[in-house]
Amino acid sequence: ERLILGADVSPQPLAQPPGPGVEAGKGLEMRKLVLSGFLASEEIYINQLEAFTGYALGPSSPLATATTSQPVLTIQQIETIFYKIQDIYEIHKEFYDNLCPKVQQWDSQVTMGHLFQKLASQLGVYKAFVDNYKVALETAEKCSQSNNQFQKISEELKVKGPKDSKDSHTSVTMEALLYKPIDRVTRSTLVLHDLLKHTPVDHPDYPLLQDALRISQNFLSSINEDIDPRRTAVTTPKGETRQLVKDGFLVEVSESSRKLRHVFLFTDVLLCAKLKKTSAGKHQQYDCKWYIPLADLVFPSPEESEASPQVHPFPDHELEDMKMKISALKSEIQKEKANKGQSRAIERLKKKMFENEFLLLLNSPTIPFRIHSRNGKSYLFLLSSDYERSEWREAIQKLQKKDLQAFVLSSVELQVLTGSCFKLRTVHNIPVTSNKDDDESPGLYGFLHVIVHSAKGFKQSANLYCTLEVDSFGYFVSKAKTRVFRDTTEPKWDEEFEIELEGSQSLRILCYDKCYDKTKVNKDNNEIVDKIMGKGQIQLDPQTVETKNWHTDVIEMNGIKVEFSMKFTSRDMSLKRTPSKKQTGVFGVKISVVTKRERSKVPYIVRQCVEEVEKRGIEEVGIYRISGVATDIQALKAVFDANNKDILLMLSDMDINAIAGTLKLYFRELPEPLLTDRLYPAFMEGIGAAPGDLRAGWG
Question: Which residues does the UniProt record annotate as the domain PH (predicted)?
Fold first, then answer.
């Protein structure tokens, strides 16, 4: 884990470009699309730097008062906090001014690789900024605590909006602005990847972009190697160094209720904390709920662990209601912004959205993550992603390989350690979409079609299957699962899934060895006793997936390679309803026509699917959420359309997620939606109504 660079910035192999002359027109268009998007974000970035330098050097700035009898900041503090910001601003302003006219007059003769090469050659300025970053942040925090005037300004710096934006200004904290240059290098490197992907090898820009990418990757690698460990560490009262390795928000089950905690993994201790409630303007602090030295920490196996304490589970329909409310509130916020609505109204809607997202984050996780201390105490977290649980377990087990000693922290040591958490944390906000900056990608909305083809690289035969996870509403959830391919080293699944995306940015694939050992008692329905053989993640790049064609890729994980294909259908396209040309089936046919033909009030397909789900699917985790295999769903669709006499036999043998998926497909293909166009606005208004009393999750 890195304090400075949170994103995965390790060098990646260069994307394969199109060959000479191949799809020249399409490549030209794609390069312009990539550059246009990059220019828009570059304008926002320059405005942010300008706000920073404007505050530092303007007529009423700290610099102007530094030599007066009542300075806001000393000259040394100014030089520390604003170090290299002016230089970075000038570099990017020149880059933007040179690139902008080239994109505006875009054609096959335009070249811009030399601009990116020059930008990459100036990364030494960023190196100096990064080396000073932690000191600048600490200095700004100390100045905020000691100077109310500086604190007030640093919590609400005004940033000019883009030229075509209806918002003239936005407010950003100084802490957020200080992080922007670090984040920018990573984003620029990803843009170079995209440009190379769409640039022919014989294009004059290609070697220049390649050189810029190589310089950027080497720079990012050197930063990761050169980061001073003390920057992610706290010094104990005994003079020893305790380094932060990983931190994040997890849901803990405490006294039979769910509580959101911030968990910190140091080199020798795991600490569970919550943010103290403080009055406005006061410095935030953490309160330690408990800690376990890693020498005393053990993971109980499923058969050894006790069944989870009774926690009131949130019914699935209530979770779905929350998601609909969040979606409705997002739409309202966009409308208000488009109509230049009052900022108070927008803030009120954002607050309501945060409350619903927080409740969803708190109540949706179901995968148990147990931690046991040798002194007899046990703790239970609930996670929504097995990928995340695996990351925490692996990080702890890696540290436990060192020669660790048991210890007890004194009250002073615990106070120092807990006090350091606020400064050292790498995860600053709870993972909800309402915490995203306006310039961050909103993610993809629609349906991702994924075919999991095969895997190779296993050293010995196993019972292998894969699961797919995507991020929805800010956190990851499992969305699909292949069948088990037994006793093999080269499974060939070739299974297709349709996964709904809700602001999604990443796809994760986990490969498991299925456990058939009945002695491994499963005390929790949500416990996964199968062994993870490998796991990997890819970014869902809109420019790659938003094409109508299938895109084939490979995820590498621990020497294992999983091949898959995917294509994306936007929400707008998926909502287009085309009535069936033949009226003999049930899919794409009006409900009134089907019920009249069947002489019933509810279509036969609805009755049979619901009955089968109630019979076999009530205990299934993720029913109606986890995707069924697309070929199974299509087979059921054909049988229902043909009114085949073997329907019941086929239903009883079919995977329950495929049956749930068939029912969802039936509703989606109706010529008109169940919630009619006339009544839909009233429905959305009801969904957006203020929720009742929110359950306390921070206690």
Answer: 243-401
Cα 318–chain centre separation: 23
- Residue 621: per-residue pLDDT: 76
Say whether 113 sits in a helix, a strand or coil.
Answer: helix
Q: How far apart are CA 159 and CA 313, in angstroms?
A: 43
Distance CA 423, CA 114 (A): 40
Task: Write the CA distances from 573 to 156, 379, 633, 679, integer angstroms.
Answer: 40, 46, 20, 22
233-309+364-430 CATH pick, 1.20.210.10, 3.40.50.300, 3.40.640.10, 2.30.29.30: 2.30.29.30
Total-model pTM: 0.59
Alpha-carbon span 276 to 283, nearest angstrom: 10
Q: What's the rounded Cα separation, in Å, for the pair 30 and 227?
A: 36
Tokens of 255: 């006294």
d(CA 595, CA 657): 25
Nearest to 194 by CA among 539, 614, 651: 539
DSSP 588-656: TS-HHHHHHHHTSSS-HHHHHHHHHHHHHTTTSTTTTTSBPBHHHHHHHHHHHHHT-TTHHHHHHHS-H
- CATH C-level class of 24-227: mainly alpha
Could you say which architecture CATH assigns to the domain 591-672?
Orthogonal Bundle (1.10)
Structure tokens at 82: 């604003």
Dihedral angle of Cα 241, 246, 247, 252, to the nearest 10 degrees: -110
DSSP letters for 17-51: PPPTTTTHHHHHHHHHHHHHHHHHHHHHHHHHHHH
**Residue where the block lists tokens 């456990």:** 515
Q: Specify the residue for token string 């292949």.
A: 482
- Which residues lie below 8 Å from residue 263, measured CB to CB, with a gap of 6+? 247, 248, 249, 250, 270, 271, 272, 273, 381, 392
Q: Residue 467: beta bridge partners?
A: 481, 510
Terminal-to-terminal C-alpha distance of the chain: 28
Phi, psi of 525 (to 5 degrees): -60, -30
What is the pLDDT, as a whole number, of residue 416? 84
Tokens of 518: 């009945």
**Nearest of 587, 654, 586 to residue 617 by alpha carbon:** 654
Residue 66's pLDDT is 45
Domain 444-573: homologous superfamily in CATH: C2 domain (2.60.40.150)
Token pair of 235, please? Answer: 């010094």
Task: Pull the structure tokens for residue 86.
Answer: 């002016």
Are 482 and 452 contacting, i.e. CB atoms less than 8 angstroms apart?
Answer: yes
- Distance between CA atoms of 199 and 115, rounded to whole angstroms? 15
- What DSSP element (H or E) covers 233? strand 233-235
pLDDT of residue 279: 57
Which pLDDT value is given to residue 284?
Answer: 73
For residue 554, what are the β-bridge partners? Answer: 563
Sign of CA dihedral 431, 433, 434, 439: positive
* Interatomic CA distance for residues 697 and 358, integer angstroms: 8
Q: What does the angle CA 640 – CA 644 – CA 646 come to, to the nearest 5 degrees?
A: 110
User: Residue type at 154?
Assistant: S
Q: How many CA atoms lie within 13 A of 667 on its CB side?
A: 14
For 378-425, the pLDDT digits (tens) are: 999 999 999 999 999 999 999 999 888 899 998 888 988 998 898 888
Backbone angles phi, psi at 133, to 5 degrees: -55, -50
Distant-in-sequence, close-in-space partners of 316: CB < 8 Å, separation ≥ 6: 623, 624, 625
Strand partners, 298: 372
Q: Which residues, given as ranges, of the chain have pLDDT below 50?
A: 1-15, 17, 20-23, 63, 66, 225-230, 690, 692-696, 698
